Protein backbone atom coordinates (compact mmCIF):
# COMPACT_ATOMS: atom_id res chain seq x y z
CA UNK A 1 0.00 0.00 0.00
CA UNK A 2 2.89 2.34 0.86
CA UNK A 3 4.55 1.66 -2.51
CA UNK A 4 1.29 2.38 -4.34
CA UNK A 5 1.02 5.75 -2.63
CA UNK A 6 4.59 6.68 -3.67
CA UNK A 7 3.88 5.54 -7.20
CA UNK A 8 0.70 7.66 -7.22
CA UNK A 9 2.65 10.73 -6.10
CA UNK A 10 5.29 10.17 -8.79
CA UNK A 11 2.68 9.84 -11.54
CA UNK A 12 0.87 12.94 -10.28
CA UNK A 13 4.11 14.94 -10.26
CA UNK A 14 5.04 13.87 -13.79
CA UNK A 15 1.54 14.67 -14.99
CA UNK A 16 1.70 18.19 -13.52
CA UNK A 17 5.17 18.77 -15.01
CA UNK A 18 4.04 17.55 -18.42
CA UNK A 19 0.91 19.72 -18.31
CA UNK A 20 2.97 22.77 -17.28
CA UNK A 21 5.40 22.14 -20.13
CA UNK A 22 2.57 21.86 -22.64
CA UNK A 23 0.98 25.01 -21.26
CA UNK A 24 4.29 26.85 -21.65
CA UNK A 25 4.64 25.78 -25.29
CA UNK A 26 1.07 26.78 -26.05
CA UNK A 27 1.61 30.18 -24.47
CA UNK A 28 4.75 30.76 -26.56
CA UNK A 29 2.97 29.65 -29.72
CA UNK A 30 0.10 32.06 -29.02
CA UNK A 31 2.50 34.91 -28.31
CA UNK A 32 4.08 34.41 -31.73
CA UNK A 33 0.75 34.27 -33.54
CA UNK A 34 0.16 37.40 -35.63
CA UNK A 35 -2.68 38.58 -37.82
CA UNK A 36 -3.61 41.35 -40.24
CA UNK A 37 -6.77 42.18 -42.18
CA UNK A 38 -6.34 42.37 -45.96
CA UNK A 39 -8.26 44.27 -48.66
CA UNK A 40 -11.01 41.62 -48.67
CA UNK A 41 -11.66 42.17 -45.00
CA UNK A 42 -10.19 38.73 -44.37
CA UNK A 43 -8.03 38.22 -41.29
CA UNK A 44 -4.75 36.54 -42.30
CA UNK A 45 -3.26 34.62 -39.37
CA UNK A 46 0.31 33.33 -39.12
CA UNK A 47 1.92 31.33 -36.33
CA UNK A 48 5.06 33.42 -36.68
CA UNK A 49 6.55 36.23 -38.76
CA UNK A 50 6.66 35.29 -42.46
CA UNK A 51 10.24 34.39 -43.34
CA UNK A 52 9.60 33.16 -46.90
CA UNK A 53 7.53 35.67 -48.84
CA UNK A 54 6.44 35.53 -52.48
CA UNK A 55 5.22 38.80 -54.02
CA UNK A 56 3.31 38.69 -57.30
CA UNK A 57 3.19 42.37 -58.36
CA UNK A 58 6.03 44.95 -58.68
CA UNK A 59 4.26 47.68 -56.70
CA UNK A 60 3.73 45.37 -53.74
CA UNK A 61 7.33 44.13 -53.93
CA UNK A 62 8.45 47.76 -53.81
CA UNK A 63 6.57 48.20 -50.55
CA UNK A 64 8.15 45.09 -49.03
CA UNK A 65 11.55 46.67 -49.70
CA UNK A 66 10.33 49.91 -48.14
CA UNK A 67 9.60 47.80 -45.06
CA UNK A 68 13.22 46.59 -45.22
CA UNK A 69 12.02 42.99 -45.42
CA UNK A 70 13.73 42.22 -48.71
CA UNK A 71 15.82 39.42 -47.24
CA UNK A 72 12.58 37.55 -46.50
CA UNK A 73 11.53 37.58 -50.18
CA UNK A 74 11.98 34.30 -52.05
CA UNK A 75 9.94 34.97 -55.20
CA UNK A 76 9.20 38.10 -57.25
CA UNK A 77 7.23 39.12 -60.37
CA UNK A 78 9.01 38.54 -63.66
CA UNK A 79 8.20 42.13 -64.67
CA UNK A 80 10.78 43.40 -62.17
CA UNK A 81 13.54 42.15 -64.47
CA UNK A 82 11.77 43.60 -67.52
CA UNK A 83 10.93 47.10 -66.21
CA UNK A 84 14.13 49.07 -66.66
CA UNK A 85 13.67 51.73 -63.97
CA UNK A 86 12.20 49.29 -61.42
CA UNK A 87 15.04 46.82 -61.98
CA UNK A 88 17.69 49.55 -61.75
CA UNK A 89 16.36 50.83 -58.42
CA UNK A 90 15.62 47.53 -56.67
CA UNK A 91 19.04 46.25 -57.75
CA UNK A 92 20.48 48.83 -55.35
CA UNK A 93 18.57 47.19 -52.49
CA UNK A 94 19.07 43.49 -53.26
CA UNK A 95 22.08 41.88 -54.90
CA UNK A 96 19.89 38.91 -55.87
CA UNK A 97 17.78 41.19 -58.04
CA UNK A 98 20.90 42.78 -59.53
CA UNK A 99 22.16 39.29 -60.44
CA UNK A 100 18.66 38.19 -61.51
CA UNK A 101 18.84 35.14 -59.26
CA UNK A 102 15.60 35.64 -57.33
CA UNK A 103 13.01 33.18 -58.75
CA UNK A 104 10.11 34.61 -60.75
CA UNK A 105 7.04 32.36 -60.43
CA UNK A 106 5.05 34.74 -62.64
CA UNK A 107 4.77 35.55 -66.30
CA UNK A 108 3.66 38.86 -67.82
CA UNK A 109 0.64 40.61 -66.32
CA UNK A 110 -1.28 38.55 -63.79
CA UNK A 111 -0.23 35.13 -65.05
CA UNK A 112 1.47 33.03 -62.37
CA UNK A 113 2.72 29.48 -62.10
CA UNK A 114 1.11 28.11 -58.95
CA UNK A 115 3.37 25.04 -58.96
CA UNK A 116 6.43 27.31 -59.00
CA UNK A 117 5.01 29.33 -56.11
CA UNK A 118 4.40 26.17 -54.08
CA UNK A 119 7.94 24.96 -54.79
CA UNK A 120 9.28 28.09 -53.07
CA UNK A 121 7.55 26.97 -49.84
CA UNK A 122 6.24 30.43 -48.93
CA UNK A 123 4.96 31.36 -45.48
CA UNK A 124 3.05 34.18 -47.16
CA UNK A 125 2.02 35.30 -50.65
CA UNK A 126 1.26 38.99 -51.29
CA UNK A 127 -0.86 39.93 -54.30
CA UNK A 128 -3.64 42.22 -55.52
CA UNK A 129 -7.23 41.22 -54.81
CA UNK A 130 -7.89 41.08 -58.57
CA UNK A 131 -5.62 38.01 -58.78
CA UNK A 132 -8.59 35.79 -57.97
CA UNK A 133 -7.57 32.50 -59.62
CA UNK A 134 -4.21 32.39 -57.88
CA UNK A 135 -5.72 33.43 -54.56
CA UNK A 136 -8.25 30.60 -54.63
CA UNK A 137 -5.70 27.97 -55.64
CA UNK A 138 -3.12 29.02 -53.06
CA UNK A 139 -5.59 29.30 -50.20
CA UNK A 140 -7.01 25.95 -51.22
CA UNK A 141 -3.53 24.58 -50.51
CA UNK A 142 -3.42 26.30 -47.09
CA UNK A 143 -0.89 28.92 -48.22
CA UNK A 144 -1.68 32.27 -46.54
CA UNK A 145 -2.43 35.06 -49.03
CA UNK A 146 -2.53 38.75 -48.10
CA UNK A 147 -4.34 40.83 -50.72
CA UNK A 148 -4.13 44.54 -51.49
CA UNK A 149 -6.37 46.87 -53.47
CA UNK A 150 -4.44 50.18 -53.50
CA UNK A 151 -7.86 51.76 -53.99
CA UNK A 152 -7.01 55.05 -52.30
CA UNK A 153 -4.61 56.67 -49.84
CA UNK A 154 -6.26 55.13 -46.78
CA UNK A 155 -6.25 51.59 -48.17
CA UNK A 156 -2.63 51.88 -49.33
CA UNK A 157 -1.47 52.85 -45.85
CA UNK A 158 -3.67 50.28 -44.08
CA UNK A 159 -2.33 47.56 -46.38
CA UNK A 160 1.26 48.65 -45.76
CA UNK A 161 0.64 48.36 -42.02
CA UNK A 162 -0.87 44.91 -42.55
CA UNK A 163 2.11 43.72 -44.57
CA UNK A 164 4.43 45.21 -41.96
CA UNK A 165 2.72 43.19 -39.24
CA UNK A 166 2.97 39.90 -41.12
CA UNK A 167 6.67 40.32 -41.98
CA UNK A 168 7.61 41.58 -38.52
CA UNK A 169 8.18 45.20 -39.51
CA UNK A 170 5.35 46.96 -37.70
CA UNK A 171 7.47 49.85 -36.41
CA UNK A 172 8.99 50.42 -39.84
CA UNK A 173 5.54 50.46 -41.46
CA UNK A 174 4.24 52.90 -38.86
CA UNK A 175 7.24 55.18 -39.43
CA UNK A 176 6.43 55.41 -43.16
CA UNK A 177 2.70 55.93 -42.57
CA UNK A 178 3.34 58.66 -39.99
CA UNK A 179 5.60 60.47 -42.45
CA UNK A 180 3.07 60.26 -45.29
CA UNK A 181 0.25 61.40 -42.99
CA UNK A 182 2.33 64.43 -42.03
CA UNK A 183 3.08 65.26 -45.65
CA UNK A 184 -0.59 64.93 -46.59
CA UNK A 185 -1.51 67.44 -43.90
CA UNK A 186 1.21 69.78 -45.12
CA UNK A 187 0.05 69.52 -48.74
CA UNK A 188 -3.56 70.42 -48.05
CA UNK A 189 -4.53 73.68 -49.73
CA UNK A 190 -7.76 75.68 -49.68
CA UNK A 191 -10.07 75.14 -52.61
CA UNK A 192 -8.52 76.98 -55.54
CA UNK A 193 -10.81 78.94 -57.82
CA UNK A 194 -10.21 78.06 -61.47
CA UNK A 195 -7.74 75.30 -60.51
CA UNK A 196 -5.93 73.77 -63.44
CA UNK A 197 -7.52 70.65 -64.89
CA UNK A 198 -5.37 67.59 -65.53
CA UNK A 199 -6.09 64.78 -67.96
CA UNK A 200 -4.32 61.51 -67.12
CA UNK A 201 -3.68 59.03 -69.95
CA UNK A 202 -3.05 55.35 -69.38
CA UNK A 203 0.23 53.60 -70.23
CA UNK A 204 1.53 52.29 -73.54
CA UNK A 205 0.10 55.08 -75.64
CA UNK A 206 -3.54 54.64 -74.59
CA UNK A 207 -4.19 58.35 -74.80
CA UNK A 208 -7.96 58.00 -74.96
CA UNK A 209 -8.13 55.90 -71.77
CA UNK A 210 -8.21 57.81 -68.50
CA UNK A 211 -9.14 57.63 -64.79
CA UNK A 212 -12.41 59.06 -63.52
CA UNK A 213 -13.72 60.48 -60.27
CA UNK A 214 -13.16 58.33 -57.21
CA UNK A 215 -10.14 56.55 -58.70
CA UNK A 216 -6.65 56.40 -57.19
CA UNK A 217 -5.36 58.80 -59.86
CA UNK A 218 -8.22 61.19 -59.15
CA UNK A 219 -7.22 61.22 -55.48
CA UNK A 220 -3.57 62.00 -56.35
CA UNK A 221 -4.51 64.78 -58.78
CA UNK A 222 -6.79 66.44 -56.21
CA UNK A 223 -4.04 66.16 -53.58
CA UNK A 224 -1.80 68.19 -55.89
CA UNK A 225 -4.28 71.08 -55.81
CA UNK A 226 -5.40 70.54 -59.41
CA UNK A 227 -8.65 69.02 -60.70
CA UNK A 228 -9.23 65.84 -62.66
CA UNK A 229 -10.43 66.82 -66.13
CA UNK A 230 -12.49 63.62 -66.31
CA UNK A 231 -15.84 64.19 -64.55
CA UNK A 232 -17.05 60.61 -65.03
CA UNK A 233 -17.45 58.47 -61.87
CA UNK A 234 -15.66 55.55 -63.51
CA UNK A 235 -12.39 53.74 -62.83
CA UNK A 236 -11.17 53.57 -66.44
CA UNK A 237 -13.38 55.23 -69.06
CA UNK A 238 -12.46 55.33 -72.74
CA UNK A 239 -13.27 58.59 -74.49
CA UNK A 240 -13.24 60.18 -77.95
CA UNK A 241 -11.26 63.13 -79.29
CA UNK A 242 -14.50 65.10 -79.29
CA UNK A 243 -14.86 64.50 -75.55
CA UNK A 244 -11.25 65.58 -74.99
CA UNK A 245 -11.98 68.92 -76.69
CA UNK A 246 -15.11 69.29 -74.57
CA UNK A 247 -13.17 68.77 -71.36
CA UNK A 248 -10.29 70.96 -72.63
CA UNK A 249 -7.69 70.06 -69.97
CA UNK A 250 -4.92 72.49 -69.07
CA UNK A 251 -2.40 69.66 -68.80
CA UNK A 252 -2.08 66.13 -70.15
CA UNK A 253 -0.03 63.66 -68.13
CA UNK A 254 1.28 60.41 -69.61
CA UNK A 255 2.37 57.24 -67.85
CA UNK A 256 4.86 54.88 -69.54
CA UNK A 257 4.15 56.57 -72.87
CA UNK A 258 5.96 59.02 -75.14
CA UNK A 259 5.17 62.66 -75.87
CA UNK A 260 4.84 61.69 -79.52
CA UNK A 261 1.89 59.46 -78.59
CA UNK A 262 -0.05 62.70 -78.12
CA UNK A 263 1.74 65.11 -80.44
CA UNK A 264 1.43 62.73 -83.41
CA UNK A 265 -2.35 62.44 -83.06
CA UNK A 266 -3.80 64.68 -85.77
CA UNK A 267 -7.22 64.64 -84.08
CA UNK A 268 -5.71 66.39 -81.04
CA UNK A 269 -3.51 68.87 -82.89
CA UNK A 270 -5.80 71.83 -82.14
CA UNK A 271 -6.31 71.01 -78.45
CA UNK A 272 -4.97 73.98 -76.42
CA UNK A 273 -2.90 71.77 -74.11
CA UNK A 274 -1.23 70.26 -77.17
CA UNK A 275 -0.69 73.57 -78.93
CA UNK A 276 0.73 75.07 -75.71
CA UNK A 277 3.08 72.10 -75.14
CA UNK A 278 1.43 71.24 -71.83
CA UNK A 279 1.91 67.49 -72.22
CA UNK A 280 4.16 65.82 -69.63
CA UNK A 281 5.48 62.31 -69.02
CA UNK A 282 5.99 60.74 -65.58
CA UNK A 283 9.47 59.49 -66.40
CA UNK A 284 11.02 57.48 -64.99
CA UNK A 285 7.76 56.15 -63.62
CA UNK A 286 9.18 54.20 -60.65
CA UNK A 287 9.49 57.17 -58.23
CA UNK A 288 5.84 58.10 -58.79
CA UNK A 289 4.04 54.76 -58.55
CA UNK A 290 0.57 55.75 -57.27
CA UNK A 291 -0.23 52.18 -56.17
CA UNK A 292 2.19 52.64 -53.26
CA UNK A 293 2.72 55.40 -50.70
CA UNK A 294 4.55 57.14 -53.54
CA UNK A 295 1.15 58.47 -54.62
CA UNK A 296 2.44 61.35 -52.49
CA UNK A 297 5.27 61.95 -54.97
CA UNK A 298 2.90 61.59 -57.92
CA UNK A 299 0.88 64.44 -56.41
CA UNK A 300 3.98 66.54 -55.81
CA UNK A 301 5.05 66.13 -59.44
CA UNK A 302 1.59 67.17 -60.68
CA UNK A 303 1.74 70.17 -58.33
CA UNK A 304 5.05 71.25 -59.87
CA UNK A 305 3.61 71.06 -63.40
CA UNK A 306 0.41 72.82 -62.34
CA UNK A 307 1.86 75.55 -60.10
CA UNK A 308 5.13 77.20 -61.23
CA UNK A 309 5.61 78.57 -57.69
CA UNK A 310 6.33 75.00 -56.58
CA UNK A 311 9.76 74.88 -58.16
CA UNK A 312 11.67 71.97 -59.61
CA UNK A 313 14.39 72.54 -57.01
CA UNK A 314 11.85 72.23 -54.20
CA UNK A 315 10.34 69.13 -55.80
CA UNK A 316 13.72 67.40 -56.06
CA UNK A 317 14.61 68.26 -52.46
CA UNK A 318 11.32 66.89 -51.15
CA UNK A 319 11.57 63.75 -53.25
CA UNK A 320 15.04 63.01 -51.92
CA UNK A 321 13.78 63.46 -48.37
CA UNK A 322 10.79 61.21 -49.09
CA UNK A 323 12.96 58.43 -50.48
CA UNK A 324 15.22 58.55 -47.43
CA UNK A 325 12.21 57.97 -45.19
CA UNK A 326 10.38 55.49 -47.43
CA UNK A 327 13.43 53.25 -47.93
CA UNK A 328 15.44 54.11 -44.81
CA UNK A 329 18.58 54.90 -46.83
CA UNK A 330 20.27 57.96 -48.26
CA UNK A 331 21.49 58.52 -51.80
CA UNK A 332 18.97 56.24 -53.54
CA UNK A 333 17.43 58.93 -55.73
Automatic annotation (TrEMBL):
Signal peptide residues on this chain, from the entry's feature table: 1-24
InterPro entries: ABC_Transporter_SBP, ABC_transptr_periplasmic_BD
Protein's recorded name: ABC transporter substrate-binding protein
Biological source species: Sphingobacterium kitahiroshimense
Start and end residues of each Fe/B12 periplasmic-binding domain: 52-310
Keyword vocabulary terms for this entry: Signal
Domain of life: Bacteria
PROSITE patterns, sorted: FE_B12_PBP, PROKAR_LIPOPROTEIN
Keyword Signal: yes
Family annotation (SUPFAM superfamilies): Helical backbone' metal receptor (SSF53807)
